[in-house]
Amino acid sequence: xxxxxEMMKVSDGSLLGDPGRTPLSKKQGAKWQRPRLTRQAVxxxxxxxxxxxxxxxxxxxxxxxELELSMVRHQPEGLEQLQAQTKFTKMELQSLYRGxxxxxxxxxxxxxxxxLIYAQFFPQGDATTYAHFLFNAFDADxxxxxxxxxxxxxLSILLRGTVQxxxxxxxxxxxxxxxxxxxxxxxxxxxxxxxxxxxRHTLPLLREDAPLEHVERFFQKMDRNxxxxxxxxxxxxxxxxxxxxxxxxQLFENVI
Length: 256
Fold this sequence. Notes:
It comes from Pipistrellus nathusii (Nathusius' pipistrelle). Pfam families: EF-hand_7, EF-hand_8. This is EF-hand domain-containing protein. Keywords: Calcium, Metal-binding, Repeat. The strands form 2 sheets. The chain has a two-stranded antiparallel ribbon. By secondary structure, the protein is mainly alpha-helical. The protein is built from 16 helices and 4 strands.
């Protein structure tokens, strides 16, 4: 119920907001500031909640975690190396690893696990398709499984990365076939999957054709040369110039 209440706060289903709306800062004449992702927001992240719910009590020390890292079937990088690669502290990585190991003793997460996670946190809708797309975005080497390193590196970008890092990650999510371009069909598939996952817990209630209208507005802005696809450069340039999109990057906390 609490999760549903949180989702009611989201007025738009996409990860990047609505390019057709006037940002609040424009209306009020206020200077736009990059939104900050608080610790409270991080703790609302579905994947973080899933992991920490299975974490062992905080009594074990760092040497225990290092020993656990060496014993898991798929051995990840050492904590110090992961700390250098991410924006998590060593203590946070230890907690994430304990939960990851408890949920996935093999050291790998498969797509079915992702689907179960999002079905649990978004019971009001159908999260199956979105979980599939999200899994593919995390699965960097496309081998059908996500190791601990890929998992925390992805989380680090989504929760504590720069705006540009998050936008690059979003581009990778929308680029379903990973050919370096986003088509209308790909963006529509992602947006429909998000709307399906969120169910009817959006304000205002969305019309059935809302995802398509949203995609049309995005492409009108992003597809500069009108060739029917959006490149990474077009995507980054357009998004970073749109204050509403920048502000809406906070929506990552609601659907990741």
